[in-house]
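Hello, quick one for you while I still have it in my head. A protein chain has come my way and I'm curious about its shape. I'm sending you its amino acid sequence along with the C-alpha cells. I'd be grateful if you could look everything over and explain what you see. Here's the protein in full, and shout if anything looks odd to you:
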Amino acid sequence: MQEQTSIRISIDLLNTLRNFKEEGESYEDVIWDFIEPHLEISEQTKRNIEVSKKEYKKGNLFTLEEVKKELGF
C-alpha cells in the first residue's frame, strides 16, 4: 500500500472537490483528474520545441544581454 498523508484545504475547496466527486470516487481520484492533463507536454508545445531546436541549430538565438537590451532593461 502506498504511503498516505493529509493536506489542509479550505472549506471552499473541499466543497468544490465534493461537486466534482462521483459515487465511489476518492478525493485523490478527483485531484488526479485535474492534474493529469498538465503532466504531459501538449502537441503544440512539442511543435514549438521542435521549431526552437531548428532555429537554434541555424544560429538564430539571442543572448540574455541582447534580450535585456531589446526590452530596455
